[in-house]
């Protein structure tokens, strides 16, 4: 039987690469340390498969077709298409078709209908965390793309429920696979709108506080706050998927710091998943 061996969350943002050298030294050290800590915990978990819960920044989808959820079932996916990500060390990332297909079947059987892709481009949203985590070896990546980019969005409750689907899929997979979850994105940020660059530290801290408590309070807080928050904040949906996968228990903040140079409230967390 497969086991869920870890769940993690890490922020991303293009400026974490493009403006890295402009970040004040003390913040740069904390960011570096937080990514490495998540990387170290993931390595210790010895995951064979990493379910990457991440948005698509218009690399695969467009206004012509933007699924709420999409599972990557291919044997390989492409590395980041952004020219400024050209030094990312992987042009291709191996997938895990057998587990990914089992995840899709588990979802369908439970009344969840994800889109399916046999070939995705995995953009900076996932590849910045993977890069900065400095993993010695890369697990197979099963992408779960969650629309947290373009309204209408899936509800925050649905995202939490998707976490239960991941948990169920892992526990019902018959082979002895070690599976971890990495949610990327958030916390507060605002891109290409009037409030561009704003970081809502108060909202981020309250969100973090609520992750440690009962899920209903977290959901109702986010339902109320997200429509008025910076648009990038919607990516906290991915954290909700990881939270659901961990059965809403064992949340631990690794670090949080608002970083004005990269215009993101940067958060890093892990959950105890209980196997
Ligand atoms: Fe993003």
List keywords for this structure.
eight-stranded mixed β-sheet; alpha/beta; Protocatechuate 4,5-dioxygenase, Chain B; binds fe (ii) ion; 8 helices
Shape: globular
Distance between the termini: 11 Å
* Structural domains: how many: 1
User: How much of the polypeptide forms β-strand, as a percent range?
Assistant: 15-25%
Mean pLDDT: 97
* Tally of individual helices: 8
Low-confidence stretches: none
Order of helices and strands: EHHEEEEHEHEHEHHHEE
Helix content: 25-40%
Main beta sheet strand tally, sense and closure: 8 strands, mixed
- By CATH, the topology is Protocatechuate 4,5-dioxygenase, Chain B
Describe this structure in words.
The protein has one domain: Protocatechuate 4,5-dioxygenase, Chain B (3-Layer(aba) Sandwich). The protein is globular, with a radius of gyration of 17 Å. The strands form two sheets. Strands 6-3-7-2-8-1-10-9 form an eight-stranded mixed beta sheet, sandwiched between helices. A two-stranded antiparallel ribbon has the order 4-5. The protein is α/β, with parallel strands linked by helices and 275 residues long. The chain contains eight helices and ten strands. It has helices spanning 15-18, 25-45, 97-109, 124-132, 156-172, 201-211, 215-225, 236-245; strands spanning 3-10, 49-54, 69-72, 76-78, 92-94, 115-117, 140-146, 178-184, 251-259, 264-271. 35% of the residues lie in helices and 21% in strands. Bound molecules: fe (ii) ion. Fe (ii) ion binds next to loops.
């Amino acid at each position: 039987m497969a086991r869920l061996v870890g769940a993690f969350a890490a922020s991303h943002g293009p400026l974490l690469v493009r403006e890295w050298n402009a970040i004040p030294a003390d913040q740069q050290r904390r960011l570096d340390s937080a990514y490495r800590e998540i990387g170290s915990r993931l390595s210790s978990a010895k995951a064979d498969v990493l379910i990457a819960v991440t948005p698509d920044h218009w690399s695969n989808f467009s206004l012509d077709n933007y699924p709420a959820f999409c599972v990557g079932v291919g044997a390989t996916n492409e590395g980041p298409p952004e020219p400024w990500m050209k030094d990312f060390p992987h042009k291709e990332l191996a997938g895990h078709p057998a587990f990914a297909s089992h995840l899709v079947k588990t979802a369908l059987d439970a009344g969840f209908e994800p889109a399916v892709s046999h070939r995705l481009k995995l953009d900076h949203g996932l590849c910045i965390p993977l890069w900065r985590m400095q993993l010695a070896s890369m697990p197979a990546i099963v992408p779960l793309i969650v629309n947290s980019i373009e309204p209408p969005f899936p509800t925050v409750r649905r995202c939490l429920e998707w976490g239960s689907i991941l948990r169920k899929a892992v526990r019902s997979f018959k082979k002895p696979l070690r599976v971890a979850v990495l949610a990327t994105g958030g916390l507060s940020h605002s891109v290409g709108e009037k409030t561009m660059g704003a970081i809502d530290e108060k909202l981020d801290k309250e969100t973090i506080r609520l992750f440690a408590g009962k899920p209903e309070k977290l959901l109702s807080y986010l339902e109320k706050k997200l429509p008025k928050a910076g648009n990038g904040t919607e990516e906290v949906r991915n954290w909700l998927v990881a939270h659901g996968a961990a059965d809403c228990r064992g949340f631990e903040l690794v670090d949080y710091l608002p970083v004005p140079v990269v215009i993101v409230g940067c958060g890093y967390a892990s959950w105890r998943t209980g196997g």
